[in-house]
Amino acid sequence: SFRPFGLSNMMMSSKGDKVTVAVIGGGVAGLSCAQRLGSSDKFLPTVFDTGRLRPGGRCASRLPNDSAKEKNEKYDHLSKTTVDHAAQILTVPQGDGFVEFEKQVQEWEERGVIKRYAEGTVCDIVNPFDRKTKMYDKQKIQLRPKKGNMYYGLDGMQSIPQSMKGNFELEQDVWVSPSNGAKLVNSEGKKQWEIKAKGQILGRFDELVIAHNGKCADRLMSSSPAKDLHRLLRVNFAPNVAKSGGNRMTLNSIYSLTFAVPAVDSALSKALPSNKFTCGFIKNHPNLKFISCNTRKYNNDESKDVEVWTVLSSAKFGKTHKGPQENLPEDLQETVKGLLYKSLEEALVLPRGSLRGQPETPAGSGKILESRVQLWGAAVPLNTWIPDDDIAQGFLHDGDYNVGACGDWLLDSSLAGAWESGRRLAQFLIDSEDPKTVGLEGGFQGAEGVAKAGIGAL
Length: 458
Prior knowledge:
Blueprint: H1 7-15, E1 19-24, H2 28-38, E2 43-48, E3 61-62, E4 83-84, H3 99-111, E5 114-116, E6 122-126, E7 129-130, E8 135-136, E9 142-145, E10 151-153, H4 159-163, E11 169-171, E12 182-187, E13 190-197, E14 200-205, E15 207-210, H5 215-222, H6 227-233, E16 235-237, E17 249-251, E18 254-262, H7 267-271, E19 279-282, E20 288-293, H8 294-297, E21 306-313, H9 315-320, H10 330-347, E22 370-376, E23 383-387, E24 395-398, E25 403-406, H11 415-431, E26 442-446, H12 448-453
Parallel strand pairs: 1-2, 1-15, 2-11, 6-19, 15-25, 16-17
Antiparallel strand pairs: 3-4, 5-10, 6-9, 7-8, 12-13, 13-14, 18-21, 18-22, 19-20, 20-21, 23-26, 24-25
Helix pairs in contact: 2-11, 5-6
């Protein structure tokens, strides 16, 4: 719930022995940073998150019987199962830089926060190659199981951020104003960051951490004196980036379509049988990148008769059909749905029209029962900031103005990169008596893992 600070509490917290920290963004990076800071006896972190129901960023999930955002929004089938509509897979990157994250993943698995996908059920969807004709057979599909340990949240991907709460303050459903929400002020002889939302002061803090990206992060810091850090928060939106990495952070945009079909009669369920497939990467269609069956991951009574699927579009498709993220026009929604259904029929070699139809078709026809589409506007970073110095690998900090930044765009475009970036910034602050300026000089480099997978590095 929205729980603003009173001015008396605000002033008392800033006079204590501990350093107060405002973390803007309750995704994995922000929560990781706050969790690590909160484990130290030096800091009092507070996370401000825009999520209406819970934190998580791209790890947000819709849970059964979640309250609807709009009063007239009602789904008989989609509301009865757990739905992951953004992040789908957690992996541990190779290399020495993710040792701490590997330990965290082991702990999450032991605690029942995450679960491994059954072996062979995460696949690449391809058209088989005919050696005789030396061409791909567009009339058939092949499921190629992927190797390696891949995980999902036991109760949705939101299980991961939920498990990270505890030793810090969390202010939920708070939109820190991008125009004047973070302002550096002089308070009792020292510089502090004043945080505001809806014109109300939420608190003054000794340190500020920017743990989100996109236009809002850019605007939030645009009028601050921390110009060198703001320069790196400026953002482009594009489906791809130059191999050299470009001159700005670049994010893609992806559509997420969730829909329900009969569990037995649908052509989709027949093409992707439950004993062989839970989720996978679509490699044979330019409009699509990923498909996942939520009801196969999260068994409940609804999954006996209905299957709920999530499809993620390609970034090129997202760019071509982009609209206002917070309020997609209904005609655009229907256009996007129709094109994605058509693309899915083509990719899986389904009979034409086997998915498309009226939004609500009687059960037994095999067609769509319900659907919901949303635009993931600031989706995946296509490039990574590589600093010139060795200290700030994975984070930024401006010691002149007591502001830092963390996020996957600073290390690796993945959940692992986000978690590790937040942890590293926190550890830097914990280890430093007087945190200096680090990481602000360097250059962007193309994220190779995103180029391959399209929805994040795996």
